[in-house]
Amino acid sequence: MNQIKAFLKEEDGIGVVEIILILVVLIMLVVIFRDQITAIVKNAFTQINGDAKTINGKIKIK
What we know:
The chain is mainly α. The chain has three helices and no strands.
């Protein structure tokens, strides 16, 4: 009987449940805003590639 009471009072598993809930919420947000996130990432890589071409064009190898 004491083992059952001790098991019910044990709270070690609560951290795992909280982490799972946080992950579920994050995944839901990513699914909801997938199009906006994709547009932001594409825009960022387009700017990075454009700036890289500008920088590479100014480098002269002798």
